[in-house]
Amino acid sequence: MSQSTEGKSVQPGVAEANRAVLRRFPFDDTRDLEDARRGFMGTAQESVVKDADGRAVWDLGAYGFLDQDCPDTANPSLWRQSRLCSEHGLFEVAEGIHQVRGFDLSNMTIVEGERGVLVIDPLLTAETAAAALALYRAHRGDRPVTAVLYTHSHADHFGGVRGVLTDEDVAGGVPVLAPHGFLRHAVSENVYAGTAMNRRAAYMYGAALPKGARGQIGTGLGQTLSTGTVGLIPPTVDIARTGQTETVDGVRMVFQLTPGTEAPAELNIHFPDHAALCMAENATHNLHNLLTLRGAVARNPRVWAHYLTEAIGLFGASVDLAFASHHWPTWGRDRVVEFLSGQRDLYAYLHDQTLRMLNQGFTAPEIAERMELPPALERAWHTHGYYGSVSHNTKAIYQRYLGWFDGNPAHLWEHPPVEAARRYVEFMGGADEVLRRARRSYADGDFRWVAQVLGHVVFADPDHAEARELQADALEQLGYGSENGTWRNFYLMGAYELRNGSVGTPTSTVSPDLLAALTLDQLLDSLAIRVDGPRSWDADITVRWNVKDGTPVTMRLRNGVLTHVTGTGTAAPAPDVEFTLTETDLRAVVLGTLPPAALSARDDIKITGDAGKLTELLGHLTAPDPDFAIVTP
Question: Is it the case that residue 476 has pLDDT exceeding 70?
Fold first, then answer.
């Protein structure tokens, strides 16, 4: 395996394709740059944000290279978008409304009230959130935080809350507002499949890539993820319906619930006294994801378009400003309505045309290749696929309606990747012959095919150095030409790991706060997904937890499945062992911070039966792997 962190030169075909982008789109349109810089008040004097141990978690100066002209190793459209996203500092959006942008993947919005400030979406990590609030206070005074509002259930919009708020503040009456269902979705998405999502997020955001013209230049939605401390303070005020009005510290807000759009729990906020509309992440300056490449449940573009139409109807006649938790605001009533209408038409078009072609028998890859946006939408910069893409969004729509199977029985029971790869390579005349042909395809500029076909060689023989290197080269060229920031990061991360080995998971959203927010049901469910089923086929173990001041919970491992029931009815089998303890201690056992052997030494914990059965049950669990292979078997 070669060791290289410096990307290779761009191939002529990719360079020419990138130059063609400059001729195709209106790069002389400077309105977005003007909007991105409007209201600038200043930025932090210290460019590096560090954690308590002095480790850098964010660097404001890391993207200074974007001030240069776009090189041939980057798509000029993505370079332009990344340049706009890298504008960092404190910005006055309207009188009494400020944003700190460029301090994390997302924006922090600060609305001034009568006594202090309402903080909307306190970034991903506590360190960057604290730095953002400090910047605001340096310019506007040391105003207390009198409320926090989460617009939706993704970690980059709540994870930094402990940088702006404490548990004592909440106990003292500072409210935390969030859309209905927020907590359930926030913890379930980040815990159940969190390990896999976070590992894939290493590819999607490219946090471990070198930053530069041949490396990571942004994600399209923002620059990348900060690598500090993710936390969560549960909401205290539930926003449960559209039209609900709340006044916090003199700030009037009217809410629109938008479940099932960009997040399963999300809302927009109208500020009638400011003629301003916060669109959360429902309308940003790009085509968003309908299925994020890190993995998630596919989103519904029909519902998304519906709520954008509703927002225009509810608020379009009374707002002069729209801002979101990513990118820069849009000013002027006509421009706001045009922007929201264009975003609505974007999602509706992709939905309707995918369904039209789907019902004509086209498969997901075929639809993705055929789909073209109307010229009027394509001309608008904010519809470009910098984060989502027309290609993978149409596949997501297909998946939402028809699932993974395209209907062709030849695809119903295919060999898994390694077994298929060995057969492909043998049929194609062996690895050397595949490489010979792949080098010719590389010279012809067919990098998609090179990456695809050499994937078989690498999976058939992961130690084949020449195949790894040529596949890495092909992935790199695909990255250089990508308008989509997350595609570029995926391609370049694939190349990086083929050459250098795994980077693991640089940022994890599975934090103690998120685990503490799990209900007992969710926590036990998260235990069940760790059972090694085949090794547990013959096990039959029942453990009952008599929770003090609570309801008994009975767990049973049988047929390789760990189930649990509450109460002591007929569904609860007779236990092999019973533990009488507090819910706090039960949570500690499940999370692994209180070992079974320590239970018998506790006078406040009563044990009836064979205590060894708990150790036996826990021995059937496996640990998730945050470093699993992606581009190799």
Answer: yes
H-run or E-run covering 182: helix 182-191
**Above 70 in pLDDT, residue 350?**
yes
Residue with tokens 């201690």: 585
d(CA 119, CA 161): 9
Count CB atoms within 10 A of the CB of residue 103. Answer: 31
Q: Say what the alpha-carbon torsion angle 42, 46, 52, 57 is, to the nearest 10 degrees.
A: 80
CB distance 491 to 485 below 8 Å: no
pLDDT digits (tens, 9 = 90+) for 173-203: 999 999 999 999 998 877 889 899 999 999 9
**DSSP strand E in 30-169: where?**
40-42, 48-50, 56-59, 89-94, 97-101, 108-112, 117-120, 145-149
Task: Collect all residues with Cβ–Cβ distance below 8 Å to 365 and sequence separation of at least 6.
Answer: 395
The count of other CB atoms within 10 Å of the CB of residue 351 is 22
- pLDDT tens-digit profile of 586-620? 999 999 999 999 999 999 999 999 999 999 999 99
**Which CA distances in Å does 298 have to 156, 254, 361, 382, 398?**
19, 28, 21, 22, 10
Q: Helix crossing, 417-427 with 447-460: angle to 10°?
A: 110
CA-angle at 128, arms to 122 and 134, nearest 5°? 85
Kindly tell me the burial class for residue 246, based on how many C-beta atoms sit within 10 Å of its own C-beta (0-12, 13-18, 19 or more): middle
Task: Please determine, for residue 6, whether its predicted confidence score (pLDDT) is greater than 90.
Answer: no
